[in-house]
Design goal:
Radius of gyration: 19 Å
Number of helices: 7
Organism: Candidatus Ryanbacteria bacterium RIFCSPHIGHO2_02_FULL_45_13b
Number of strands: 2
Strand order of the largest sheet: 1-2
Helix content: over 70%
Strand content: under 5%
Oligomer: single chain
Keywords: Membrane, Transmembrane, Transmembrane helix
Structural class: mainly alpha
Order of helices and strands: HHHHHEEHH
Protein name: DoxX family protein
Transmembrane segments: 20-42, 62-84, 91-114, 126-144
Distance between the termini: 54 Å
Largest sheet: 2 strands, antiparallel
C-alpha cells in the first residue's frame, strides 16, 4: 500500500514540476538579468568595479559610464527576451557573448577572482555561478522546435 502512495505522489510531483518548469525558468532568467542590468543603469551594481577593471584591460578606449549603460541595457534585454515566448533564440544569441565576456575576469583578473588555486573570491564565485545560467538556457533551447526547411 505504501509503495503505491509513494509512486503516485512521485508522479504528481514530477508532473507538476514539468508543468511549471518552462515559466519558472523564464521568470528566473528574467529576474536575474533584468535586475542586475537595472542595478548597472542606476550605478548600484556591486559588479561595477569588476566591470571597470575588465573594461580597462580589454576596451580602454570605451568610457566606463557609457559601457556600463550599454551592458545594463544588454542584460535587461536578455531578461526581457527570455520572458517572451518565441524570443528564446534571440535571448540565447545575446547570452552567448555576455557569458564569454563574464568569464574573462577569471583569466584576465586572477587577483580579483581567485584567492588561491581553485579557491575563488566572492567575485569569482559570482562568475562561476553562471554555469547554472548556461545550463538553464540550454534547458530552454533543448525544448525549442527546430526550424523547418522551406
Amino acid at each position: 500500500m505504501g509503495n503505491k502512495f509513494i509512486v503516485a505522489f512521485d508522479r504528481t510531483i514530477v508532473k507538476g514540476a514539468r508543468w511549471v518548469m518552462g515559466p519558472v525558468e523564464r521568470i528566473a532568467l528574467f529576474i536575474v538579468f533584468f535586475w542586475f542590468g537595472f542595478l548597472k543603469l542606476i550605478d548600484a551594481s556591486p559588479a561595477n568595479p569588476l566591470v571597470a577593471d575588465l573594461l580597462e584591460r580589454t576596451l580602454p578606449f570605451w568610457s566606463f559610464e557609457s559601457f556600463v549603460v550599454f551592458l545594463g541595457m544588454w542584460e535587461m534585454l536578455i531578461g526581457i527576451a527570455f520572458l517572451l515566448e518565441g524570443w528564446e533564440r534571440f535571448a540565447i544569441a545575446l547570452l552567448v557573448p555576455h557569458m564569454v565576456t563574464t568569464i574573462m575576469p577569471l583569466i584576465l583578473l586572477p587577483g580579483v577572482t581567485w584567492q588561491s588555486f581553485l579557491v575563488p573570491t566572492l567575485e569569482g564565485q559570482y562568475i562561476i555561478k553562471n554555469v547554472v545560467i548556461v545550463a538553464l538556457a540550454l534547458s530552454i533551447a533543448a525544448r525549442l522546435k527546430p526550424f523547418r526547411r522551406s
